[in-house]
Amino acid sequence: MAKPKSYWECQECGRRAAQYMGKCPGCGEFGTLIEIMEEPETPTTAKPASAVRSRPQKLAEVSSEMGDRYPVPVEELSRVLGGGLVPGSVVLVGGDPGIGKSTLLLQVAVLMESIAGPVLYVSGEESERQIKMRAQRLGLESTDLFLVTETELSAIFTHIEAVKPRLVIVDSIQTTYTEGKASAAGSVTQVRECASQLRELAKSSGMAIFIVGHVTKEGVIAGPRVLEHIVDTVLYLEGDRFQAYRLLRSVKNRFGATNEVGVFEMRDRGLVEILNPSELFIAERVVNAPGSAIAVTLEGTRPLLVEVQALASQTAYPNPRRTANGVDFNRMSLIIAVLSKRVGIKLHEKDVFVNVISGLKVDEPAADLAVAVAIASSVWDVPVPADMAFVGELGLSGELRVVSQTATRVREAAKLGFKRVVLPRTYRQDETFDRGVEIVRARSIDEALAVSLPKPERV
Fold first, then answer.
1. Calpha distance 223→174 (Å, rounded)
2. Of the residues 37, 135, 184, 318, which has the fewest C-beta atoms closer than 10 A?
3. pTM surpassing 0.85?
């Protein structure tokens, strides 16, 4: 009889090693390798032809028609999913503890029961009574939502066979385990195996499955390379626990566009969708305050107006501080260098702080111009006109470069009452915009500052 074999597996990235190592060579984390005992497999013969469930097809013979999607009553979630919930799809929802994952999925479960059919909510972390208390707190009433507390996968399949739901919610995949693996629940081996079996169930039965995934301290789903390749859609629920706003971001979607985002607000009655987030993000803006500028950024296909604030103060240290919140630190350093070299603003003796209001994170270069104008406004102590917004990427030579979907951004600014939008001069002249919007074109950051800020004494 063959002896059981053992190997060491990292619980962060899933890398395997023949012996223990204090530091994982894959992800660089310390103390994440645990020993896994692997039972030897018994030799089996090849699978008979009668057991094969599929057959080769020519590409021209494959039907391109997709099954009808289930309409999702939550418009923000429907946009992120690509226009609805596809039957047979597996959706992974990740986020920090307490961010609102279970709350959102419980709301979706109650709303979807009248559209798709019976819904089964499988919880491995809460009892049925706890879920009932949350539903009462949120004011949710249901007649076709089934609750079960179970962590063993075969028992979950038994409940699914009995209920025959059209939608299954598993909360969470890290608490689910299968008896066929010797490792503990939450290990990479268990997560991989359970997610794979749930995927096979969804594809064979046509039921949609939501899976809740915990995140690591880096903010990514535990075992990301394992889960992201298995599921069809990966959603992240982001936001500060001390802020009311939540962003539901799509990073993978086989049935729609990626990088879509839905905006929610956490209230006493649960997560409420925000249909016009731009107006909300700039609602508390202090008009005519130095160091504030409006950037028109793009989240997926949705334009958002966000307020970028900057503060430049005299430093008391040999090395001035640079702090970025909501923008990339390296990009902020690049903008500071351009302002110092190309514009002549003396920032080598000033601490510079840049912040994007409402806890948003802006990763695209279209906000470069707004960040630069906000820093210059703070240094010169001159406010930016309240009716002016900024769109443009900043180059190392101080030139302004065109960004994608500029027309969509300008229309969003016009809808919220902005009268002037500063754009790169190289943008096409034949583009038409909404009435009442003046397009201010600038070739460089120096020209943009000249048209947006009165001429101060440069310090």
1. 10
2. 318
3. no
